[in-house]
Design a protein that fits this description.
Elements: H1 2-10, H2 23-45, H3 63-90, H4 95-116, H5 126-146, H6 150-155
Helix pairs in contact: 2-3, 2-5, 4-5
Length: 168
């Protein structure tokens, strides 16, 4: 009984019935969560965090520091990815917020990778290219999550409160 109460407090009732945006956005958030958790696990649990084996970085100098920073980044990716996954599956009313936060994160990644803090020499790890593919898709998913979908409009959901009204 006590464990059930703790789980109910940790995971309150689902808000999915009140989600008015496109289901495409919710599914995209699920995919994005997996694409965040998987590299996070590599950064956290691979011996070199993927720094040498995937990103191709030279770990001769300050290798332990680079690996530690990759592990730190992996830990934050896993936590953010799990939050996105829970929202996409159980609390879809928060999908626009999570997509917006992901947009901020990946925009900063792209700016740093390509403009502000790029590494001389032209070498780029796979994520630098992946972020360029994900960003426009993320922007579309965010826009769709903010629009009232056909499904929500037909069900009679009110646009500002997520409350159902009587369909006449």
């Amino acid at each position: 009984m006590q464990n059930s109460l703790m789980l109910t407090r940790l995971f309150p009732p689902s808000t999915n019935d009140n989600y008015r945006g496109s289901m495409v956005s919710a599914y995209f958030l699920t995919l994005l969560s997996i694409l965040t958790i998987a590299p996070g696990c590599i950064h956290e649990f691979a011996p070199d965090g993927g720094a040498g084996t995937i990103a191709g970085l030279n770990l001769t100098h300050n290798g332990r520091l680079v690996i530690a920073l990759f592990a730190w980044a992996g830990a934050t990716q896993i936590a953010f990815g799990l939050a996105m996954l829970v929202v996409s599956l159980r609390y879809r009313t928060l999908a626009p917020l999570m997509l917006g936060l992901a947009l901020v994160e990946l925009t900063l990644h792209a700016l740093n990778a390509w403009l502000l803090k790029s590494v001389p020499g032209g070498h780029r790890p796979p994520e630098h290219y992946g972020v360029l593919v994900i960003l426009p898709l993320l922007l579309i998913a965010l826009a769709l999550s903010l629009r009232t979908s056909e499904r929500a409009a037909q069900s009679g959901a009110l646009p500002d409160r997520g409350i159902r009204r009587q369909v006449q």
